[in-house]
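QA checklist item 7 of 12: single-chain prediction sanity check.
[x] sequence parsed
[x] length recorded as 354
[x] structure emitted
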Amino acid sequence: MSGAEKDSREAEQEDLEGNEDLEQSDASSEEPSDSDKDSFDSAENGADEEEEPAQTFLQHMEELRRRFVRIFIACGIGFLACYSFAKPLFALLMAPLVATLPPESTLIFTSLPEGFVTYLKVSFVAGFFIVSPYIFAQIWGFIAPGLYEHERKWMIPLAFLSACFFVGGALFGYYVVFPFGCEFFMGFADEFIRPMPTLREYLSFSLKLLFAFGVIFEMPLFIFFLARLGVVTHTWLRTKRKYAILVCFICSAILTPPDVITQSLMAGPLVILYEIGIWISYFFGKRGGRIEEKAKAKAAAEAENGDDDPDDSGPDAGGVAGETAGEEKADAVKKEKPDNKKNKSDYDEDMIEM
């Protein structure tokens, strides 16, 4: 081997070693250091900690129990605050009836503890109305974890408006419905029929109407909540208007005494509130995410595709394909049989020659 060849080989060897060193340095530069790995791992752990884990069923029940305990404590505080004013509160509740009673008629009670129990009930109901904002805040707070972040911003306004609508419905029942109802029922009294209502019956009648009107006045907020979630739309509510009116009168017949006056006085506001709910869903409804409209559009698209593109994989197509495959298989078997016979005859001739 000459010196020139030896020098050229040494130069090539050095070039190869230099290339290997460069590749190793590039790999080391691309590979993250231990500090980078630690920072990346810590960032991943931080991201995992920021995500709220999904609650189990038992955790939801525990959260519901805590909310109920808070509501009961708030109602107890409201009851204690109102018990000292039980007598004037009950006098205020009796005012619509007293205004329509004949001069010689009064309220009576037929059992010894009835007066005491009546004051307890009035105090509890008054305390419930006072703490109703806190109660609705607890209800919406229980619902909030199941909503998106941009939907949770409505929780505080909804809790406040829920209390306002509930109290407003009760006041509407007291100042509008009670006078008409009491005057209608007292109209059946004459010189032969003397009205003597009891404390228990009047309290049951009045509280039933107060709570009923308080609940039905929550309809606009309920529709607003469903519209924001995309469950209902103003179009769907308009198409179901006639059924909604029927349901309003049925609910009024169930919640009110069996007379046309009070039933109409409840059904009328219900229908008006339903119409208000239609406008609320129109202005505040979820755009582009309406479940009803998406379902209709999807069904129409599927029906159109079904008419334009008939399915070739139906039972008839499957039967034709099966028959064709069977015929091809039979032809193949027929073609193989002569070959087998030919092979057997060739084998016999070879044996004879041997």
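[x] summary fact logged: The chain has 15 helices and no strands.
[ ] second reviewer sign-off
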